[in-house]
Design brief:
Length: 237
Amino acid sequence: MELGISFSEFLFFLILSAFLCLVVILPSDAMQSAGFTISKVFAFWLGDERFNFVEYHLRRTLLTIMVHASLPFLCFVGLELCVPQPVFTPLPHNLIQIMAYLSIAFSAATACFCSILYLNDWERHYMIRRLRLLNNPQDGPWRELAIQINIEVRRPMLFSMINKDCSRTIITDEWILKITNYNVNFARISDSQLVIVRSSPLHQSVPSHDGLVSTSAEHLIDLRVCSRSGCFETFHI
């Protein structure tokens, strides 16, 4: 089966598509500062993370999945506009047209998946299933536990850091929260066991009092967060 476009056009399409996906999935610091991220572009729908942490990330995870799954389709739309050959046709005849239809099918399947998670007031969302496992009988329904987490995140005294894998960790008085593109890991500190996986020294020099330069004794530590009771999946921070 023929490709449908010239090899040079296909190579340019691959490079441009990879760049677009990289920019959207892993935005640079400059893009984040400029506000070109999914969470900032759709802030009007997501709301404020600080005041409704759980609800915010329920929306954000679904939105991120939907946008990322739509990237192949958007790339083929761009290809349709750039090349003289048709990319979207009623009946595909070449490899590019088949790939374009697969991108439509993938986007549609992802939209159905996100709709299932969104319907019935988030009850089918995988984050809600994890919250139910963490919920103590005295805490009541998962929404009451979500309210507790929201209150914890609103407190001024919390620790927040960006990990080397572009995820984010928030530590409150009672919770360890790891935020990734498609998920949020919840761990009660009282039920958590921290295991050092790796410790790497920071090779940087700092000025000393006598004017000499000394090496910093700080370390980067990778931790594995495990549940003592088995209520949540192990994750790394």
